[in-house]
Amino acid sequence: MSQNAQPEKALTNVTAPSHWTAGHIRAINSDSIETAPAFGPDDFSAVGNKIDIWDAWPVQDADGHPSLISHDEVLWMALAAPRFDDPEERHGHARIYLLLRKGKEWINLGPLMPDGFSPGSREWSGSAVLGADRRTLVLYFTATGLRGESVITFTQRMFSTRATLVKDDTGYHFENWRDLTEVIPLKPDWYMPSDAGNGKIGTIKAFRDPGYFFDPATGRHYLFFAASKAFSHSAFNGVVGAAFCDDPSRDEWHVMPPLVSADELNNELERPHVVLHKGLYYLFWSTQAHVFNPEGPTGPTGLYGMVASALTGDWKPVNGSGLVFANPLDAPKQAYSWLVMPDLKVTSFADQWGPVELADGERRFGGTFAPDIQLWLDGDRAGLIK
C-alpha cells in the first residue's frame, strides 16, 4: 500500500479533531496556575563552550524509555548551532547534534548526520528509536528549507532514515546512513503547506516535529507532529497531526486527519508527544504566549496536554484548560520545549531565564538543558511534584 493510501479502518476509528478552544483558556485560574520552579545560572551548565542547544530527545527504545547504551550511558539528540550574540539567529543554522549523557555529565559528540545528507538547509526536531539489535537506529526528523538554497525558506518536510550505531576509539557515532524517505507527505485536504506563512517568529506555519510512539494496546506505531489546519479562516490555526504504521519494518506510514485543533486560538502546538500512564493516553505539546490569538484569551508559555482512553480520541484538556504547568510568573520565558518521559520526568532547555527585561547587550539565553522536573498524572488532572 502506498504512503498516500488511507485504509478505511484508520479513518472510521478516529474521533477528530478534538478542539482546544478559547473557553478552555478562560478556565485557567490565574491565582492558582501550576508553575515550574525558578532557576538561575548556577542551576545549569553549557554543553560545550561554543554551541547552544535547545529542542532535545533521547535515543529511545520502542516503549519510549531512553535506550541504555551501558549501565550509565544514554545517547541524546538536540538541535544545536554556534553561539550567537542574538540567540534567534540559531534557528537559521540548526543541525541535529549527538550528545552522550554519562551519569550527570553531558558530552557533545558533534553533528549527527554527515554534511550534505539532509535534504534541507537546516534540521529541526524529531525523535529516534534504537532497534532490538541495539545497533540499528531509525531517526525521524524535520528537514527545513532546501539544501543549497541561497535565501532561507521555511518549507518543512518530515523524513525517516536509518543508521548503524558504532563504538570505537573515538567514542559513539552513527554510520552507514541510508533509506532517506519523506515519511509523512503533505495531505493538503487536512494540512496547510508549511511555506504558507512567513519567516516572522510566531507566524511560521508548521509541518514538523515527528514524535514516535508505539501503542502496546494495538501493536500500531504512530508519529505525532505539529501542523497547521488547511483552509482555515484564521492566522491562528495550529493542529496536532498524526500518522500510523502497522508494518513491523515501519516503512509504510499512513497520514491521518488532525487529532487536536486549536483553530482561531493558537498558531503552534509544538513537539506533540504521547505518554501512556495507568491505561490513559496523554498528548502533550509546548506553546508560547506570543503565538496565541491576540484577540484573546491568551495562555502562558508552558506545557499543555489532553487525555483520552484511546489514541483516536476523544481528547479532553487536562485540568479543564489544557495547561499542565507554566513558567514562573516572574520568569515567563525561562524554559521551553518540554518533553515528558514515560517515568513522567520532564526535560526542557533553558531559554531566557530570569526577568523578561534585558539590559543593553545582555544575553540571558541558557542554550542548554534546564533542570529536570517531575510530573504527576491522575486521570484528567496533572501537576508538578515539587
TrEMBL record:
Keyword Hydrolase attributed: yes
Keywords: Hydrolase
Any single GO BP term: carbohydrate utilization
Marked site: Transition state stabilizer: D209
Binding site for substrate: W54, S125
GO molecular function, one term: hydrolase activity
Record keyword Zinc present: no
InterPro entries documented for this protein: Glyco_hydro_68, Glyco_hydro_beta-prop_sf
Record-annotated membrane-spanning stretches: none
Family: Belongs to the glycosyl hydrolase 68 family.
UniProt name for this protein: Glycoside hydrolase family 68 protein
